[in-house]
Amino acid sequence: MCAAYYANAQSSLPGYYISLDNDTITSQIRIKKGMAGQLANDFTEKVEVTDSLKGLIKFLPEDIKGYGFSYNGHQYFFASKPVKDGSKKFLSPLYIGARSSLYVYGIQTTGEVSVSSKKVYYTFEKSDNVYLFLRNILNNKFRSQLKEFYKDNVAVQQLIDTKLRYWLDLDKDLIEIMRKANME
User: Fold this and answer.
1) Is 64 helix (H, G, I), strand (E, B) or coil?
2) 180: nearest Cα among 102, 84, 104, 107
3) Cα–Cα distances in Å, from 88 out to 56, 77, 115, 140, 170?
4) N or C: which end of the chain has fewer CB within 10 A?
5) Residue 149 and residue 94: Cα distance in Å, rounded?
6) What is the pTM of this model?
7) For residue 118, what are the β-bridge partners?
8) Where are the beta strands (DSSP E) in 8-140?
């Protein structure tokens, strides 16, 4: 009889976190790896860091402004931002601009007969801390809510009218809209 079990291997990566006072503190970001060596953390809910002075610290999105680390040659950054239910999560920036930014997180679910789906949630932010929360359901409601959010920018509204037609182009179209929203 052969028994297999799942064990999370834990290690640390060089990184940093940003305090609520905007101080960037160098630290080690604690990560979990799955059986195949993939990252197994839920990066949106919490982060554990090893600080040289304070030891192991667990931060929730309300505790810090964000964190980042390097892994396999890639830089990762997560910012503490609000989501639709009013709470905060650590979100990945899709586009950061002076006038408007876009953050994203996703939830992967597996249902019966191994059918999986991925829900992607967007947080649009204006420089005056006004937010719009949308999900990756590309329909007229999505377009109209985005147009209402950018109602003070005719060029963005015109661009929205020509974009957001194909689900596979959604992120690319949103980045183009964000570029336009940040133009002088």
Assistant:
1) coil
2) 102
3) 22, 15, 29, 27, 24
4) N
5) 18
6) 0.83
7) 108
8) 9-18, 24-33, 47-51, 55-59, 66-71, 74-82, 88-95, 100-110, 116-126, 131-135
Pair of tokens at residue 5: 């079990």
| CB atoms closer than 10 angstroms to residue 109 | 9
The answer to whether 176 and 163 are in contact (CB under 8 A) is: yes
Helix, strand or coil, per DSSP, at residue 141: helix
- Residues 23-60 have pLDDT tens digits of 999 999 988 655 555 554 568 999 999 877 778 999 99
- Give CA separation, 14 vs 53, 73, 76, 183, in Å: 15, 12, 11, 35
Question: Would you state the structure tokens that stand for residue 80, as one six-digit string?
Answer: 């503490």
CB 48 within 8 A of CB 97: no
In 3-state terms, what secondary structure has residue 122? strand
